[in-house]
Give the backbone structure.
Amino acid sequence: MEELATVVKRKKNMAEVKITRYSACSKCDKSCSLAGNSHDQDEIFLEVEDKVGVKRGDQILIEMEKGNVLFATVVVYVIPIFLMIAGYFFGVWAASLLEIEATELVGIVGTFIFLI
């Protein structure tokens, strides 16, 4: 995954870069019900290793390795789903162990607890 970044600061062999991320509606000037007036753009600041001697204001292309992107995807999307499922079954098990009749409700509570 590649992103265009601007060098903000340089420290020894490291550089602080700014990546501007735009929302899907950032280029639209209309007010729609999906985005409302939210045509946001976010700025992300990262420290990266400077291997070529960049200067402040330089535009650089930074790349995240594919393995890291896949790992981040698993952490953000897959693990929470498994935790929610495990939380539900743990809640149902705990409710039956404590002889609580509303096992589904306790399972749902377990889902949210495991998600946190």
The helical segments are 66-97, 103-115. The chain has two helices and four strands.
